Amino acid sequence: MTEIHKLKQELVKICTEIYKQNLVILGEGNISVRVTGKNEMIITPAGNDYTALQPSKMVHMGLDDNVFDNKSKPSSEFRMHRSIYLQRPRVQCIIHTHSPFASTLAILHHNLPVIIEEMAIFLGGSVACTNYCPAGSEELPEEILRTMKKQNAAIIANHGVIVVGKTYDYCIKIAQLVEKMAQIYLGAMKIGEVKTITAKNQAPFIKAFNEKYSTLKDLLFA
């Protein structure tokens, strides 16, 4: 079995898990994995059907946009994945979802503040919302990277969520975590004033994030 086929199998597993967790429905979202040591990735096809996943449908392409497979067309948002891989060499996996609660924040253009310590540990802090850019546009990837800053996640205005990481399992976990935190936050706002965790109290947890999960090279926290 070739390395590419193994990566396509891994991508199918990731897709199956996020679909099972109700983070996407048929035809929405996209996921990719980096081909280790190469400027290449495996990405889900356009109009991805999560109920009929096969490794052969996953698309192998270069970060120069050259598609090596001819059986499927890559997701229309491949530019978003390409730009992140090029600018963050430590990223090995990218998951983009349209999960309901986080997408609610997206249409409000609302940031997700640090409300539980898990966010500082696993996400590196709050999850900011981008300015609006059309899906699939050249502008969107740069806006995502600008918004993401030191963290590994961003809310995409009027669209959904994107998470990045050094391992597949981590990306699945934080895709779930962003959705869970968004649900809690929206629920709390209906009851009263939300009490967030201060930057001072976040500091030791963000240090742990930097040491274990950061995808930025030579990142220094004040």
Architecture overview:
The chain has helices at 3-20, 78-87, 100-108, 117-123, 139-148, 168-191, 199-212; strands spanning 30-34, 40-43, 59-62, 93-97, 153-156, 160-165. The chain has 222 residues and is an alpha+beta fold. The chain has one domain: L-fuculose-1-phosphate Aldolase, CATH 3.40.225. Helix 1 packs parallel to helix 6 and helix 4 runs parallel beside helix 7. It is globular and about 55 Å long.
Report a brief summary of the structure.
The protein is α+β, with helices and mostly antiparallel strands. It contains seven helices and six strands, in the order αβββαβαααββαα.
Keywords:
222 residues, alpha+beta, L-fuculose-1-phosphate Aldolase, six-stranded antiparallel β-sheet, 7 helices
